[in-house]
Design a protein that fits this description.
mainly alpha; 17 helices; globular
């Protein structure tokens, strides 16, 4: 009896270790995905001087990379479902890191455009594969998505802070060389863990969900497509404009790319912590309710940001970003609830094609408003209108039920908490 139980316990421990490592590498990968794709948004402040080009002209060089970062998500998710999530994550770390290093050698705007495009395509692996990998290995999904979102926030914050400091104290090229090399080394570490059997591919969810009805799946898909489009556009436009907005409206308090970068970094660190709380909200309350309320609260803040000046712009931008990132765990929980587990990477791939594929529109919107009006007043009113569309659309999402009508009961379903109740599962 004891002899038979020993191998079983050993396998359980190996599975637990694999899940912990998967969660860790997924979270670190989220940091890199945003850090490496957003470095340029702060580097551009240095290139304005070194290359003698205008902000609008330089920022447009990142549009192709932003497009590929989103558009690549669907095929990368398809490959992840059919081949190996772990293998795709190894490719993600190594390829994105090395391409970032290579982009640091750019001598012309065309070379920079090609380099940023290559980074965007390689980094597009992360969201469909890495987030689905995380969900598949998590016991409490809201909490896991919240923590993962915090690590993503570290990447966004680090992009501004790291790029600003390296630009001021070494060179803008170092802002690509150093983070890129670290990312590639992380990929080698994951490869070693995979080869040693410490990390395994999990094909089924650690905690399965009762299936949603086909009608609810299609309804949720159509409505989430609209809401994720609006949310992605708001997020990308705000992320793009932030360094320039602070450079203009905080000119009496912060100086140079490093000063701007540190303010942006501090803001994103705070909002990243709040995203963890957003994960707790998604576990404790209906994800639909959390999703609608967070974006509804954002509308008046976006309108106020159109005219806010001086230090007052900082808390406004903090709250706008906090509400956006706090909604991400609820959005992930809704997507998980209304998608089949066997196509989870593909479902998240579709999400990020929409949410990240809209990024070039956000960048071009910022550039067009700045070129046309010379300020960002109109930009924030457009974003407030998008927030209204998003909130009203989200109200039409299906209601969340622990056991949808017509869905067969699953063994162990009683252990799965209803969305409105606190989750008893532990990570």
């Amino acid at each position: 009896m004891t002899t038979a139980a020993a191998p079983e316990r050993s396998d359980d421990l190996a599975e637990a270790r694999s899940s912990r490592l998967a969660l860790w590498f997924s979270c670190v990968g989220h940091t890199y995905s945003h850090l490496l794709t957003m470095l340029y948004l702060t580097v551009v402040l240095t290139l304005e001087r070194e290359w003698g080009m205008g902000y609008a002209e330089l920022i447009k060089l990142s549009t192709l990379g932003a497009l590929l970062f989103g558009a690549g998500a669907l095929p990368m998710g398809w490959i992840g479902d059919r081949w190996s999530a772990v293998g795709m994550m190894v490719v993600y770390f190594i390829a994105t890191g090395l391409l970032t290093v290579v982009t640091g050698f750019a001598e012309t705007p065309t070379q920079m455009l090609v380099g940023l495009a290559a980074i965007g395509l390689a980094a597009s692996i992360y969201h469909p594969v890495g987030v689905a990998w995380l969900v598949r290995n998590a016991a409490r999904r809201g909490k896991a998505l919240g923590v993962n979102g915090f690590f993503g926030g570290l990447g966004v914050a680090g992009a501004a802070g790291v790029a600003g400091v390296l630009c001021d104290f070494i060179s803008w090229r170092a802002a690509f060389f150093i983070p890129g090399a670290i990312c590639a080394v992380t990929g080698l570490a994951l490869w070693a863990c995979w080869a040693l059997g410490w990390v395994r591919d999990r094909k089924e969810d650690r905690v399965p969900e009762p299936p949603a009805s086909r009608q609810d799946m299609w309804r949720a898909f159509l409505i989430l497509s609209l809401t994720m489009l609006c949310a992605g556009l708001i997020y990308q436009a705000v992320s793009t404009v932030m360094p320039k907005l602070f450079a203009e409206r905080l000119s009496d308090w912060v100086k140079g790319p490093s000063g701007v970068g540190m303010v942006v970094m501090g803001l994103y660190l705070v909002t990243g912590v709040l995203q963890v709380y957003g994960g707790h909200l998604a576990d404790r309350y209906p994800a639909k309710t959390v999703y609608v309320l967070l974006f509804a609260l954002q509308i008046p803040l976006l309108a106020l940001a159109a005219t806010a000046a001086g230090l007052g712009i900082v808390p406004l931008m903090l709250l706008i970003n906090a509400l956006t990132v706090m909604s991400i765990p609820a959005e992930g929980a809704l997507l998980t609830r209304f998608s089949p587990s066997r196509h989870r990477s593909l479902a998240f791939g579709a999400k990020f094609v929409i949410a990240l594929g809209i990024a070039p529109v956000g960048i071009m919107l910022v550039a067009w408003v700045e070129e046309t009006t010379g300020s960002f007043f109109l930009l924030f009113w457009i974003l407030a209108a998008l927030g209204l569309v998003l909130s009203l659309g989200a109200l039409l999402l299906p209601g969340e039920r622990a056991d949808p009508a017509g869905a067969p009961a699953q063994e162990g379903a009683a252990a799965i908490p209803a969305p409105a109740a606190p989750s008893a599962a532990a990570e």
